[in-house]
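Whether sequence alone determines local backbone shape is best considered at the level of individual chains. We regard such an encoding as a compact summary of how the chain folds. The sequence in question and its structure tokens are set out directly beneath this paragraph.
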Amino acid sequence: MSFIDNKGRFFGLINIIDLLIIILVVAVIGRFTLKTQQKSAGAVTKNIEVVLHVKEVRDATADVIEVGDIVKETKTNAVLGEITNLDVKPSDTIVETADGRVVTYPNPVYKDIYITLIGSGSAGENAIVLGSNEIRVGTALQLKTNMYSVTTTVMSINVQ
């Protein structure tokens, strides 16, 4: 008895092409089933504390940012976290004096804001993700609420 008969059937039961299609479908279903059962290695959901720097904003913007605000990322609308602390300081401006010296002087118009934000994210071996954004020190993040939108720079990250 041969494996394939004169009609092209495997053991006389099923067409060889049909058998290959069935094997392919079973393999694809098995792959997706295994993928959904696996958990990502190393990525654990944790609270992440981030200090953000907002550079040179006017008083009107500085006055509407408040502790307790829930902020979102501008492009994806993903929740980043809650503001837990604010530190508003006058921006430093570099000024050249009449005698040629260069000094820093507090700017009377612009303020710098340091925002402490706590949010839920994942911290893995290769990346820290807050909302849907990979963050690193120096990364620019755009924050928004229904009252304001600001561009910030990540100054420090503390995974708790």
In short: The chain has two domains: 1-38, 44-159. Residues 120 and 154 are 16 Å apart (CA to CA). The two ends are 68 Å apart (CA to CA).
